[in-house]
Amino acid sequence: MDASQLPTSSSFNVNRRVFLEGLSIGAIATAGIVSTDVLTMTHEVHAAENQPPSNADATATSPPRILVGAPVLQCPAADGMSVVWQVSGNATGWVEYGTTKELGQIVRPGGYGLNSLDSPVLSARLEGLPKAATIYYRVAAAPIDFQNAYKIVRGETEYSEIYEFRLPDPDAKNFRWCVINDTHEVDQTLNVALGKVDELQPELMVWNGDIFNDIRSEKQLVNQTLQPAGRAYATTRPVMFVSGNHDVRGVLARRLEECMLSRPENSHLGRCFALRCGPVALIGLDTGEDKPDSHPVYAGLAQFEPYREAQGAWLAKVLTQPEIASAPYLVVHCHIPLFGNRRKDSVEGQMEFARFCEQGQKFWLPHLEKAKAQLVISGHTHKHRFMPAENGQAMAQLIGGSPNLPLATVILGEATSERLQVTALQMDGQTLGTWTFPPRNPA
Predict the structure, then answer these.
(1) Which SUPFAM superfamilies match (predicted)?
(2) Do the Cβ atoms of 378 and 336 come closer than 8 Å?
(3) How far, in whole angstroms, is CA 290 from its chain's centroid?
(4) What is the number of other CB atoms lying within 10 angstroms of the CB of residue 150?
(5) Looking at the domain assignment, is residue 9 inside a domain?
(6) Residue where a domain terminates, one of 11, 32, 61
(7) Domain of 363: which CATH number?
(8) Domain count along the chain
(9) Domain end (from 166, 184, 211)
(10) The domain containing residue 368 runs over which residues?
């Protein structure tokens, strides 16, 4: 007999109990099988089994809720939206949606014949949505106890409340958006900045890099992206994520796209975006790290230089797309500035990475200049600064503030057919500056 055929201790216990329960107490005592102590224990077992469970027992054994926090809208398009939500354990899920609160449609993420089964994050893409529509939606999740291939136990389904969002409309006459940057996991700054965004009521928010210091754990990754400062922030307006140099650092940096999704149309350049929103074309570019790929700190794990070059080829194409080319305003978002001053100790002929993204200048600026882009919005330096288009600088540049609350900023953009107005605000409500731009393609 091999080891797999031997009865286990648990099977002995079960069989012994079944045997004992099949006999009367008197028969057990007469047979001398157990002592009086065991008889007493047997009475206690049966008494306990006949008692209703206490509230304390019910509380102790209640499983945690499978849905955690609120959903996050991402990757908006004229006819689509992505939804990301957190779960507390292994789960499958879906999104129910429609143009009324009755919903009526459902999308189940997955592939190759299988519905999704994952933890701690689920996501789904809504596509083919009516143009400029208001969409109502809720997320759902069901816990799955996958014991083996032939024993899968499904728990109770949980649903979020019903939320609504409006798709970006390329033909809208007006558009408002906000930009935050360099929050670096500082809850106080995040809470106030996101509160300011709520107050300003934009149609979407751009998070312009350095959400993190570095990505060290799954819990940190999920909390910072889906529940920053413990709050819901993108249930009714989407967030557009622009990667910063600190967002590509850390042992789990390669898992960032589980929470901050890549745009489905851009494949390996999925952190770049080109989106028409009313009179504005919003561009997002990824400046990557702030040192050359050959720097020893990366241990040979960086290849940002060919990545930036590939973005230049992508940019040349998207800027000629009709909905982008015809927009009155073209605004670029990238974490590291495209313009700046060289360090005093810089070596002649050596490319600058830290103060500004010189490789971005090389591969991106020719296309942006040709398209007559009016403004670059950046972060990285932790110091607000506006640089007008002058002295050979082809477009204006606005740099956001610091993770330090008194120096943090929210940038508000407001566009009409007549003008683009951009305002930098401190958290105390003080206005640092307001700048106005005429259309690049005047009628």
Answers:
(1) Metallo-dependent phosphatases
(2) yes
(3) 23
(4) 5
(5) yes
(6) 61
(7) 3.60.21.10
(8) 3
(9) 166
(10) 175-437
Mean pLDDT, all residues of the chain: 87
Question: Are 106 and 94 contacting, i.e. CB atoms less than 8 angstroms apart?
Answer: yes
Instruction: Examine residue 442 and state whether it is found in any structural domain, yes or no.
Output: no
pLDDT tens string 74-113: 999 999 999 999 999 999 999 999 999 999 999 999 999 9
Same domain? For 138 and 199 the reply is: no
Q: Which two tokens stand for residue 292?
A: 């050359």
Nearest alpha-carbon partner for 89 in 138, 125, 122, 137: 122
| Shared-domain flag, residues 133 and 182 | no
What mean pLDDT do residues 145-157 have?
97
Secondary structure (3-state) at 176: strand
Do residues 268 and 367 both lie within one domain? yes
Q: For a pLDDT cut of 90, what percent of the chain falls above it?
A: 79
- Check residue 219 and give its pLDDT: 97
Pairing of strands 91-98, 80-87: unpaired
pLDDT in tens, 52-65: 444 444 445 667 89
Q: Which helix (H) or strand (E) holds 97?
A: strand 91-98
Helix 304-318 × helix 358-370 angle, to 10°: 10
CA 6 to chain centre: 51
Q: Is the peptide bond before 64 cis (omega within 30 degrees of 0)?
A: no
- Give, as one character, the DSSP assignment of residue 198: H
